[in-house]
Amino acid sequence: MGRWSSDTPSTGVAAQNLTVDKAQLLEKEYFHLRDVIESFDQRALTIKGWSVAVGAALGALTRERTWGLVAAAISSVVFWILELYWRSFKHVFVMRAELLEQFFAGGSQPVPLQIQTHWDKEWKTNGRKQMIRMSWWLHVCFPHVVVLVIAVGLLLVLND
Q1: What pTM was estimated for this model as a whole?
Q2: Does residue 85 sit within a domain?
Q3: Residue 50 belongs to a domain
Q4: Structural Rg of the chain based on CA atoms
């Protein structure tokens, strides 16, 4: 008899194949998320590099030293906020990857191919709160705080 014959029970081969297909989709989704997360980390390093380069250039290359240092301090805060947004976007992908890891460790099976739906829900629920929590994590605030402290410190020293 064929695969879809009337004597195939509802929990038979078709349902088992569906479960296997979902697990395969979840596995592919997991590895895609890992690639996305790694790309976020690479871009975060670029943001840090921009922060230092722009801060140093503004502080050193402007004719009016005071305004250059003010601009360097402001740019470090702007890049810090940019990195906070970037990291909080990444965090939502990490949460989805963790959900999939729980499934592969024996937890309940999530619905596959829900990256965007999960992202939207998590960002609306926790996105900005997560930004505030991570703002002082050392690997997030460095080097932005260093540029800010140096710029403000030089402002104070040079204007005394």
Answers
A1: 0.79
A2: yes
A3: yes
A4: 24
Rounded Cα gap, residues 69 and 64, in angstroms: 9
| Domain presence at residue 150 | yes
Using CA atoms, how far residue 43 sits from 72, 78, 90, 101, in Å, is 21, 16, 11, 24
Token pair listed for 24: 């395969």
Q: Which of 52, 72, 54 is nearest to 64 (CA)?
A: 72
- 114 is in which domain, residue-wise? 13-158
- Number of domains composing the chain: 1
| Tokens encoding 155 | 């402002």
| Residue 103 · residue 112 · CB < 8 Å | no
The low-confidence residues of the chain, meaning pLDDT below 70, are 1-20
Contacts of 101 (CB under 8 A, 6+ apart): 30
Closest by Cα among 75, 81, 95 to 131: 81
CA 17 to chain centre: 34
Q: Give the pLDDT confidence of 73-99 residue by residue, as tens digits.
A: 999 999 999 999 999 999 999 999 999
87: tokens are 């990291």
Give domain status of residue 7, yes or no: no
The identity of residue 52, as a single letter, is V
